[in-house]
Every structure is written in structure tokens, then in C-alpha cells.
Design goal:
single chain, 417 residues, mainly alpha, Growth Hormone, Chain: A, 78% helix, disordered N terminus
């Protein structure tokens, strides 16, 4: 670090000495691990959970989904940075990856066995908590082992987890929407299998001795210290705004298709999700790879992040102007392009402005509050907007405004071009 405001890129020792073939194998395993994680988040969150709640109480489904989604995100927000800090302290990732994955499998099995809104909420809280233990450890592997010059490429490949995992998860969920228990178990088995693969073929090589124990007050201060860094703080704000805008809409997509969009005759909302998701995810995969590779080649990150966030805000107007099946197809493709590029390159930005390499998992966990934290607010806000303003049009407009603000938040970052 040359000053408080200009952070040099992280250069972990292990990745710099690792041979290229090993890194390629590691990146493939990380792709599988992230894909399985997103399969659970998208398959359950976008299809199985809304379907489950609608079966229990169709009249109040919007409000219940808002409450369940918001409360469960509290657990996600808390568990991610705590698990990251603990894995930093132990100097190991694999035990947290395995433990989080198999605990999630147990939580999903429980979720598939319950039949009241309260128990569904408890089950989803358990799954969110345990999946974020898994996520914190998997996320930290990139700054642990990938050199700074390859972060854009690595982030792009890892970012393919969303289009691949999202498509697989939604396809599994759509085909098992009438057999919820089977759907939950299959998705749990996917993440457990991915954890076994990653930990079997990518054994822990601790970069340092486990961190010494420190008083609780000092741990809390250290945990929050990343947000005192200028560049990291703005990266956090931009990510939070973008995620809030995205999930305010995507979290209610099944209900949007049911209540707002004029679907073709005979096409059910769950079936429509199975069509829209591959469209969005294919576009997301394309922009993830292209954005990540070009950001490495040109050594420029901010322009990709800012333009993609702005595009995500603008395309929210498409379903407002054209609340039709064709409009939703167009929206899904453009939104996928925007969100994929943003997440791939923004992840590279974040890894380059982390304050301290030895606290990578902890600080990535802090950043993941910007992923999970807005999801606490999004269900409550979305539910209130839909209920109070009488429809989904205002929801699209609010989501678009938040994404545009996220585009502006990238401008103050000074340590990355």
C-alpha cells in the first residue's frame, strides 16, 4: 500500500509459483463449485420457494415471499463474513466448503418436508446460512491462488457459474415444481457433489499459519476496517446498489409472469421461467467471458462495470413499455448481458482493491454483505411497492433507478483503471 487511497494489486505467493495447468484445473473446479451454488440459489429462490409458498397460501404469496426472503437474507448476510473470517483464522478453506455444502443438503431436505409458511421460512433461513458458509470459503480461493494479472479471466470463468448454474437450477426446479421434495434434494445433491470434487482435487495448502486469537472488540473493528478504505467502500456501494436493483425484480419473476405478463396460451409461469432463464443465462455467459477477457487485455475495469450497470438500469423499462412475452424475452437477454459483464469485471475490481491479502476471505465476506444485504431489503421493498402501488410497473422503475445509481458509484474508485 503506497497510501490510504491507492491500493496495490494483491499478489498471493502461491498462485505466482503455481504452474499454468494447475491454475486451469483450479479454475474449472471453481466453475463447478460456483455453478452448483448458483443452481441452489436460482432453482430454489426463483422457482421452488415461490411455488411452495403459492401452494400454501396463494392469496398472500407476495407478502409471504417478501418476509421469507428478507428474513432469510439476514442469515446470509451474517454467516458469510463470519465464516470467511473463521476460515482466514484457521488458514483453511476445504473444511468450510464441505461443511457448508452438506449442511445445506440437510437444510434442503428439511425444507422439502414442511407444509407451513413458518417452517418454510425456517428451512430457507437454514439453507441460506449454510450456503453462505460454503460461498465464503469458495469465494476466497480466487484471491488466495490466482495472480492479479489473471483476475479478470478467473473472475470471468468463475462468473460463468451464474449462467450455467442458474440455467441448471431453474431447469431442475421447473421440472420438479410439482414434486418439491425431489427438487430440493436434487439441488442439495448437486452442491454436495461439487464440494466433494473441489476438496478432493484441490487440497488445502495454507498460505500462512492460522491467525492468532484476538479480543472480540478488536475482531469486530478489524472486520469493519475494509470499509474505511476509499476504493473498497465505493466498490461495496456500487455492488450493493446493483444487486438491490437486480433482485428487487428477479426475486418476483415467477409472480411477474403469472400476474403481469401476457403469456402465450398454454404456457404456464414455471414453463416460461424454463424458457427465459436459458435466454438470460446464455447472454450472461457471453458477456461474462467477453467482459472479463477484454478487461484483462486492455487493463481497464471501470468502463465495463459502469456501462453494464447503466445498461441494466435502462433495460428495466422494456417490460414497462411492452408487458408481453416478446418484451420479457428481450428484457431477459439484455438484462443477462448487463448483469453478466458487471459481475465478472466487478469481481476483478474488488479483488484488486482488497486492503490486505492475508485477510482476503474476511474482506470478501464483507463485500458479500453487498450481495446478501440488499436481498434483505429487496423482498420487503418489492412487496411493499407491488402492494401499495398496485402492480409490477413501479417495481421495474425502482429497480432500474437503483442500477443506474450503481453505475455512478464506480466513478470515485481511483486504484483501478
Amino acid at each position: 500500500m503506497t497510501s490510504d487511497d491507492l491500493i496495490q494489486p494483491i499478489r498471493p505467493k502461491a498462485p505466482e509459483t503455481a504452474p499454468a495447468p494447475h491454475r486451469r484445473g483450479l479454475m474449472l473446479l471453481l466453475l463447478v463449485a460456483n455453478s452448483s451454488m448458483l443452481a441452489v440459489y436460482m432453482g430454489v429462490g426463483a422457482v421452488l420457494l415461490p411455488t411452495h409458498i403459492a401452494m400454501i397460501d396463494p392469496a398472500n404469496k407476495v407478502a409471504i415471499l417478501g418476509i421469507v426472503g428478507g428474513v432469510s437474507s439476514v442469515f446470509a448476510t451474517a454467516c458469510n463474513p463470519i465464516a470467511g473470517a473463521l476460515s482466514d483464522r484457521t488458514g483453511r478453506r476445504n473444511p468450510w466448503i464441505l461443511g457448508g455444502a452438506f449442511a445445506s443438503l440437510a437444510g434442503l431436505a428439511f425444507l422439502g418436508s414442511v407444509h407451513t409458511a413458518v417452517l418454510v421460512g425456517i428451512g430457507w433461513c437454514l439453507v441460506q446460512a449454510t450456503m453462505n458458509v460454503y460461498q465464503a470459503a469458495v469465494t476466497a480461493v480466487v484471491p488466495d491462488r490466482i495472480p492479479a494479472a489473471r483476475r479478470g479471466t478467473a473472475s470471468a470463468l468463475v462468473g460463468l457459474g451464474l449462467p450455467i448454474g442458474g440455467t441448471v437450477g431453474v431447469m431442475i426446479a421447473s421440472r420438479t415444481a410439482d414434486r418439491l421434495t425431489v427438487g430440493y434434494l436434487v439441488l442439495g445433491a448437486v452442491v454436495a457433489g461439487a464440494a466433494l470434487l473441489l476438496t478432493a482435487f484441490c487440497r488445502d495448502v495454507p498460505r500462512r499459519e492460522p491467525a492468532p486469537s484476538v479480543p472480540r472488540r478488536e475482531r469486530l473493528a478489524a472486520f469493519l476496517s475494509a470499509l474505511t478504505n476509499h476504493d473498497f467502500r465505493w466498490a461495496f456501494v456500487g455492488r450493493a446498489l446493483m444487486v438491490l436493483g437486480y433482485f428487487s425484480v428477479v426475486g418476483y419473476q415467477l409472480y411477474i409472469l403469472d400476474d403481469h405478463i401476457a403469456l402465450p396460451a398454454g404456457l404456464e409461469p414455471a414453463e416460461a421461467m424454463a424458457v427465459l432463464t436459458p435466454v438470460s443465462m446464455a447472454a450472461m455467459a457471453l458477456s461474462t467471458v467477453v467482459g472479463g477477457l477484454l478487461s484483462d487485455r486492455w487493463n481497464r475495469r471501470k468502463v465495463f462495470v459502469g456501462v453494464s450497470a447503466a445498461l441494466a438500469g435502462i433495460v428495466m423499462a422494456v417490460p414497462v413499455i411492452s408487458p408481453t412475452w416478446a418484451g420479457m424475452l428481450t428484457f431477459s437477454a439484455l438484462n443477462g448481458l448487463a448483469f453478466g459483464c458487471f459481475m465478472a469485471v466487478d469481481t476483478a475490481v474488488v479483488t484488486l482493491v482488497l486492503p490486505r491479502a492475508e485477510d482476503a476471505a474476511r474482506d470478501m465476506g464483507v463485500l458479500n454483505i453487498a450481495n446478501a444485504g440488499p436481498q434483505i431489503v429487496a423482498p420487503f421493498v418489492a412487496s411493499a411497492i407491488v402492494t401499495a402501488l398496485g402492480g409490477y410497473t413501479p417495481l421495474f422503475l425502482v429497480g432500474g433507478a437503483l442500477s443506474l445509481l450503481g453505475a455512478l458509484a464506480i466513478l470515485p474508485i481511483r486504484g483501478v483503471r
